[in-house]
Write the C-alpha cells for this entry.
Amino acid sequence: MPDETLQAAFEIKTTCDEISRKLLRWHWEKKPGAHSLNALLEHIAQRQQESPEYYERMPDLSGKTSWSQLDTTLCMRVLLDPEKDAARPLDLLGNTEHPGAARRACNAVRTARNEAAHASDRTAGTQAAILFNEAVEALEEGYAGTALRTTELEQYYRMAEDFLDRCGAKKPLASAAPEEQKAAPRSARPRSEGQRKASGSGSTSRSRSASKGRRNTGGAGRKDANSRRKGSGKRTKKPRTNYAVLGLLAVLLAVGLLLRWFGMKG
C-alpha cells in the first residue's frame, strides 16, 4: 500500500473520530439533564448492563477524562442506540429537526471510519476516501447550521477532495448521484435550503421570461411577414397602371398621326 494512501486513510480515521465527538457532544448538550462527560460515561455504563449484546466489544471506558479520548466506535454506539430496552431512553437523534438525515450521516461517518481503520491496500484506502466524501455530503444534509457550522463543512469538503486526489480517485466512484450531477462542478461552499429555493425560483422566472420573449418575437415576425406581403401586392399593381397610361398615350399619338396624314392628303 503506497505511503500516501496509508497516510490518507489514517487522516480519514482521525477526522471521523473528530466529527463523531462533535456530533455526540452537540446532541448530549442539547438533551435535558446533566451534560458532563461523567454523566455520559454513567449513561454508557448503565446501557451496557441493560443491553450487553449491543454494547459488546466496546472500548475501555476506564481512564476517560476528556471528550478528545472518545472515538467513533463509542460515539456512534451511543448516537445510534435503538434504546428498545432502555429504562430511560434519550432518543438523541429523534430530538433533532431531521432525525432521518442525522441517522444517515452518523452511519456514513461510522462506515468511512471503519473502512479507513482497516485499509491495508490502495483499493481499500481509495474506498475509504470515497466513503468519507459521501459522509461529508450526508453531514451537510443532517447537520448544516446545527452541530456543524458552514465553515466546518467547507473544511471537510476540502479535506474530502484532498483525500480523493491523494488516493487517485478524483471523482467519487461509488456515488449513486445521477450522471448530470456528477458532471456538474460542486461549489466548495455548502448551499443552504433557502439558496436552493432561490436558485429554483430564479430559473423558473428566467424560463418564463424567455418563453414570453419567444412569443413576442413570434408575433412581431408574423406582423413583419404580413407587412411584406401587403407591400409586395402594392408593387405588383403599380406596373399595370403605368402600362395603361403608356398604351393610352400610344393610341393618342397614332390618332394624331392619322389626322395629320389625312390633312396632308386633302
Summary: Helices lie at 3-30, 37-50, 72-79, 99-117, 122-143, 150-166, 179-183, 193-265. The radius of gyration is 40 Å.
